[in-house]
Structure formats: structure tokens, C-alpha cells
Amino acid sequence: MSLMLRIIHTADFHLGASLRERPVGTSLKREEDFIRQMWRIRDETLKMNADFLIIAGDIFHHIPPSGTIFTEFASFLNEITKNEIYVIVSAGNHDIPRGEYLKSHLTGIHELKSDKFIFAERGFREFEAVGGRSGRKVAFLLIPYIHKSIKLDISNEAIHDRDLSKIVSKILNEKVKKFIDNHPSADYKIIVAHCLVEGAIYGSERRITAIDDICISRGVFNKPELDYVALGHIHHHQRITDKIIYAGSIEKVDFGEENEDKFLTVIEEEKNELKAREIELKCRPMITIPRDKKYFDLRGLNNPTDHLLSMLLNHKINFKDAIIRVKALVTPDQNTLIYEDKIEKALKSKGAFYSFIDITSEEVEYEENREETEKFEDTLRKYVEEIGVRKRISRDDVELIYNEALRIWRMQREY
User: Fold this and answer.
1) Do the Cβ atoms of 33 and 61 come closer than 8 Å?
2) How far is CA 12 from the centre of its chain?
């Protein structure tokens, strides 16, 4: 007895990515997070007896990938295909070398002629495959990433026009129509594309206006004859419609994705239709501090590192296994007074996986209450110096007492 058709849709592995904001020193630490998610996808794919695993582009983060990363993916691929599951990939912009005659490392795997690994690097690929478990015949159209500098192989038009999106959308629309007509006996028709589709939302609900992307009209894919459109490229998981879905990235790539959840999309057969559901992929937490304002204002402090440490350790935040970004505002002459290694060591003792300081450098802006602040600072200094004289305290110790008192006062004002 055949099983129902089941397909796993994922995208944007970005294997080899470090932390975009601070790549130096984080590479090996972060690579393991992405690899761990990839192997979890392997486990879910096998556990659910899937017929097909779709990866809608950007398997690797760098061109070329490191030998370690390439070997990890090759092992992952072997684990899936040896279980008679198809792995279907449309190349993303991170998978395609910019040189016209250069080849992707994934093309090298494809040249091994495994009948279970299907890859489209440049140009479209159209084929039918029968699921080994369900016995369903599925027609696929693979659309790799289309860069502005490339000519589509089905057109003589160079795609540099101001109406670029209209031109490409028109070409793709015709291609999709032909694909639908070419496969009348297929049980289901599926498109796998790495692109920006009209209406896609990135991150904190703002519309994409990327310079390098060609925006494809939603109508190209929103056709009743198509059963599912598996998209990659936008890292935010979302449904353009119930059948046009961005899987999203498998891990948080940078702090622009700090508050996003990540998912694996499962497509299942239900009453001769394909329905999608999500499985959450637990990611390493990313936390920006402070959470209730733009940054800690350290301008004017003689010992900004200790002041910052005090405020951080007073925050009631679970640092365990998290990547911490600390945002601080200093004056230009304070840059050398911020000791990141001291901050990182303190946060690591609280369980943080990794931390860094995002420093903004500005001169002090004189606000309406500056006169009041200067008056207080002057009064405080005179008071501390008078005590120093009476108690015979050294000049250096007087300065330390003054700075500590000023730090406490400023900290109270911030809260």
C-alpha cells in the first residue's frame, strides 16, 4: 500500500556563515549552529518518510565553500539519497559564481549522475519524478536565482532595462504556462525558485527594496494549475499565499533576524491537494541590550567599561547560550576606554555563548538639561574634594570617589 505524498521544503542553509556583524573570531562557533540545523532536517526528513526534500537555494554562504563545509553537505546529501529520497535544489545567489564560465561546487556533485540529486545552476530545469514511497508522479520546474547581469537563456533580451521586473516576469510567466502544459499526466506540479516575489516581507514587517534583486510578479506563480511553489531567498518564513511559501533560513544569520522564528515546511497530500504545515527549528538566541532604548549612553564617563558592566549585570536577562549584542554610545576619545574582553569574560561567566559591543561614537550633544547636569557635577566635585581635604584622602582616591558617585547618579537617571 502506497503512502501519502510528503515533501520537505527548506532553503537558505548558508553553511559556513559566521556572525555578519562580527565575523572575526566567530566562524567556527557559528558554523556548528548551521550544521546542527542541517542534520536536524535530515532527521525530520527520514522520520517522516518523505518522497522529496526541496532546498530552494543558498546552501553555502561563501563561494567557494571551505572543504569542511562542503564535506558536511556531501555527507548530508548521501544520508538522504541513500534512503531513496530525492534532493531537489535551485541555486541561490550564494551558490552561483559570478564568472560566466565558473561552476558551482554543487554542479560537481550533480555530475556524479546520482538520479536522486537534481540541481539547477543556470537556466531552468524541468523534469518529472515518481515518489518512492507514495508512487505519485510530480512535475518540477526549477528556477535558479536570476542576477541582473545575466541573460536568460530563453530570451535574446539583455535584462538591463528600467522595466527589468516586468520583462523577467513576462518571460517566467510564459515558461510557467509551458511547464503546466508539458505535464498533463503529473499528479502534482511544483515550482522551486530562489527569487524575490512581489509582496514578500523581510524581518520586522518592512517591504524589500533590494537593489540587486529582480522582483517577480506574484501572478507568475499564483495559478490554480500549480499545486505548490517552494521559495527561497527571503530569510523570513512567510506565506505569500497558502501555496506560495518562503521556507526562510534555517538559522538566524544576523541581528536583523533576532526576533524571528525559524521553521521547516512540510507539504502533505490531503484529499488530492497539497497542504503545508510548519515545524519550528529551535535556534540559538540573539539578544540586544539594552532592550528598551537605542543604547547605553556612556559619554563623559572616565571609566565607561565598569559602568557598562554594572548595568549589564543588573539586567534580568537569561544569557545562557545566547549571542549578546551590547549597544553603547561613547565620545571619540572614549573608544580606547572600552575593554571588550572584560565585558565578554563577564557575560561568558553568566552563560553567554558569545558577546560583542556595537559602539556608536558621537560628541556629547548639549541638551536642555545640560546646565543642570554641569551644576550638579560641579557641586559634587567640590563636596568630594572638601571631604578629601578633611579626611586627608589622596588626590587619586578623591578622583575615584568622585567618578563612582557620578556613575551611580547617572545610572539612576537612566533608569
Assistant:
1) no
2) 8
